[in-house]
Specification:
Belongs to the bacterial solute-binding protein SsuA/TauA family. The protein has 358 residues and is α/β, with parallel strands linked by helices. The chain folds into 2 domains: 15-105 and 215-332, D-Maltodextrin-Binding Protein, domain 2; 114-207, 3-Layer(aba) Sandwich (D-Maltodextrin-Binding Protein, domain 2), CATH 3.40.190. Helix content is 30%, strand content 15%. The chain has helices at 40-47, 68-73, 84-92, 144-155, 170-179, 191-196, 209-212, 225-230, 232-251, 253-264, 284-297; strands spanning 15-16, 27-32, 55-60, 79-81, 97-101, 104-105, 114-118, 135-138, 164-167, 184-187, 202-207, 221-224, 275-276.
């Protein structure tokens, strides 16, 4: 499974953010958490942003084959993050949740994913045909880890029928490359940095940026509509903290990478972090990419083609938004905002909240 495949289990509380005892007057949200996955929620915890907030996380996990959007609909968790194709599927199935904050974007030097071979391998960006007859190691299917590389390879003349895609746990892919059992592996941060630090063993062949460019990588934060209806102001505060954390991480790449290593258990001096969408604002272009990706190399559910990003996502809970509407693209979101742009939750057709006039 991908570290962002949005597949989680309803398990007993394993860790309460900012302390183990619940504080009266604070709204808590059950956050679907994987111990080795990067998360702005956990980075915010390390920075102390939840400490005095009126909304705080309770972490639940670990991962299983139950989609997070289904658990949101069932009221078993409150907020999660994961690949947007899972959100599209969830809406087709009628699950009641809404995407309320953006996450990572791709940059050439901070990709969503990177693809590594054994050092000295003939498989390179300029020799992709060399992967034919070989094995790609990945952590799951129907997510970013398989869809992006399949499209990239196919668009560069590789016959996918001649490539074996082998599912392995994240931590087993690199050792399999070393042993020669896997010829190319798919990796997310923080492991990308770990492999980059070992050029005698591994070589980076290409990245996800080579396929979907700067608009790619989105795995927005999604919340159950029931929780949003019950706690709209807490949801607004949550998005504000996610935005603050994203902006801090982008401005402090070294420090945020060290926190990424600390929170996931990898060597802090070797890890890398993602680049995040400024101000946590959501846009149409980076979400629309998922319809195109699944249509080209995935298996879209019937009815998915009738949906649009605006049917799933909104900026209504973002204090840095001037409208609940999605931006057209992240090209409209290049300035870091240090002051709130509204004073309340904005009206959206996706969540029925009593008393909203805007």
């Amino acid at each position: 499974m991908s570290v962002l495949s949005a597949l989680f289990v309803v398990a007993p509380l394993v860790l309460a953010g900012c302390g183990s005892a619940k504080e009266e007057g604070v709204v808590y949200f059950r956050f679907a958490n994987s111990p080795t996955a990067l998360s702005l929620v956990r980075i915010a915890d390390e920075l102390g942003y939840w400490k005095d907030a009126g909304v705080r996380p309770e972490y639940v996990g670990p991962a299983t084959a139950v989609p997070a959007v289904q658990l949101l609909d069932q009221g078993k968790i409150d907020i999660a993050t994961g690949m947007f194709n899972n959100d599209i599927d969830g809406k087709v199935k009628g699950f009641k949740f809404t995407a309320i904050a953006s996450s990572m974007l791709d940059l050439p030097d901070k990709p969503h994913m990177a693809y590594f071979t054994k050092a000295g391998s003939p498989i390179t960006k300029d020799n992709l045909k060399a992967i034919e007859g070989k094995t790609v190691g990945l952590s799951g299917f129907n997510s970013c880890v398989d869809l992006v590389i399949m499209r990239y390879l196919r668009n560069n003349g590789v016959d996918l029928d001649k490539v074996k895609f082998l599912e392995l746990k994240n931590e087993l892919i690199a050792p399999a490359i070393e042993r020669g059992e896997v010829d190319l592996g798919v990796f997310h941060p923080p492991l990308v940095g770990v492999l980059l630090s070992k050029p005698d063993k591994f070589a980076q062949a290409f990245t996800s940026y080579d396929d979907w460019g700067p608009q790619g990588g989105q795995a927005p934060y999604v919340a159950s509509n029931a929780w949003l209806q019950k706690h709209p102001q807490a949801a607004r505060e949550f998005v504000g903290i996610i935005a603050k954390t994203a902006n801090w991480a982008n401005a402090h790449p070294k420090e945020s990478a060290e926190i990424a290593g600390k929170t996931t258990g990898y060597p802090v001096e070797q890890t890398t972090n993602w680049h995040y969408a400024p101000n946590a604002l959501l846009d149409k272009a980076s979400l629309q990419l998922w319809w195109d990706l699944v249509a080209e190399v995935g298996d879209p559910l019937p009815g998915a083609e009738k949906l649009t990003p605006g049917d799933i996502a909104t900026n209504a809970f973002n204090p840095y938004a001037t409208s609940a509407d999605l931006l057209e693209s992240q090209e409209q979101n290049t300035v870091i905002l240090d002051a709130e742009q509204n004073d309340t939750v904005l009206k959206t057709p996706l969540v029925d909240i009593a008393g909203l006039e805007k």
